[in-house]
Every structure is written in C-alpha cells, then in structure tokens.
Amino acid sequence: MFSVFDHLSGFCSVLLTYSISFFLGGLIGLERQIHQRIAGLRTNILVVLATTSFVNLCMRMGSTTDAIRVIASVVSGTGFLGAGVIMKDGMNVRGLNTAATIWCSAAVGTCVGIGQYAVAALLTFFVISGNTLLRPLVKWINHLPISKSEPDTSYYLTVTLKKNDHSKIQKRIFDKIDSLQYQVNSVELEKHDAEYFEMTIHLGHNVSDTQALSNLAIEIEGWENIQHVAWNSDL
C-alpha cells in the first residue's frame, strides 16, 4: 500500500515539475513566437522540458554527481542547438539572440529539474524582460551617430520582393549597394504576405547624396520579382 502511495507521490512531483517547465518555457517561447523568430513557442518549450527531464531523472536516482555531468552536457549540447539557428542573411547575421534565448531556456529547465522553481521563474522573467524591455533601448542606440563628426541622419531602403529566389535578389541588391560604397548597419526581413517579403536595409551614416539613393531605389524597383522599393530617413 505504501509503495503505491509513494509511486503516486513521485508521479505527482514529476507532473508538477514538467508542468512548471511547460509553463515557463511557454512564456519564453511565446515572446519569440510573437516576434516571429526562428525558434518559437514549441522549440523553447521542448528545450526546457528536455533539460528538466534529464536533470530531474538524475536527481530522482539520487546521483548528484551524474546530475552535474548532465548539466555540463546540457550546456554544451544546447550550444550546438543554438548554433543551428544562427545564419548569415546577406551582409547581416541573424539568430544570435534566438540562440542565446535557447541557451537561457536550457538554464530554466535545469533550475526546474533540480527543484529550484523560484530561481527558474526569476530567470524566465529576466529572459523575457531582456528580449522585450531592452528592444527600444537597442533601437535607440543603433540610431546614434558613431562619432560627433558624422551626420545624425540614418537612411532606410525598404524593398518588397517575391519569396521565390529571394536570396539571389538580396545578393544582387547588396552588390549594388556595395558598388555605391554605402555602409549597411543591419537588415530586417519580415513576411509581407503569402507571396512577398519586406526587407528593410538600414544604411550607415555615409550616405551623402540622396539623389543617388533615389536613383538606386528606382533602379531596383525595375528588377524582376520586385513589387515596390522606397527609401526614407529618420529626420
């Protein structure tokens, strides 16, 4: 009789642990999904659950040493998983923040796995805060001039292009920008509709001739698979 109750108590403990992992991983993943990142809701939930299950299993077996080894393996293994979402998109590297978030999700799962629920919840709060509250600050810093001698104006080139062969189109655009010796600070690629992407190219502060920029927009808009091109500044 006691063994049945002990088994039921252990099952309830595991159920609670996994439920907390699912909830906290869901909170982190929801923020990523809202911003349409590569690793979204399901990925972060699975990372937290997997980490929790590995560590919790070792703890339930009463082997702290093995649990420490599993945690060390999780740290390195999650690094490889995060590396898979990092990609070079034209002249811009994407996925670094998503990879870091996956690593943090593994840390949350580890905390839950060893029973540190409050620490896991606190870490989840800071991960979500870092991904959301710091976003406006990062954008503001990116708009600051690199030095006082440089102009305060930043220019943006927005291109709506077809999804088919969009990589080739992007490369052609970057080659054209490079020929004009314009600096590219960052590139954002977002879904416009079922057929088109909208790519926003943040140019550096070395754009001095707006007429040349206007001519560039007109030229690109005449290319095949380009729906619309426009440029603007932050003035």
Automatic annotation (TrEMBL):
GO cellular component: plasma membrane
Domain of life: Bacteria
Pfam families in alphabetical order: MgtC
Residue intervals passing through the bilayer: 6-29, 41-62, 68-87, 99-128
Keywords noted in UniProt: Cell inner membrane, Cell membrane, Membrane, Transmembrane, Transmembrane helix
Record-linked InterPro entries: MgtC/SapB/SrpB/YhiD_fam (IPR003416), MgtC_SapB_SrpB_YhiD_N (IPR049177)
Topology of the protein relative to the lipid bilayer: Multi-pass membrane protein
Domain MgtC/SapB/SrpB/YhiD N-terminal: 20-139
Compartment(s) where it occurs, according to its Swiss-Prot or TrEMBL record: Cell inner membrane; Cell membrane
Family, as annotated: Belongs to the MgtC/SapB family.
Name of the molecule in the record: Protein MgtC
Organism: Zymomonas mobilis
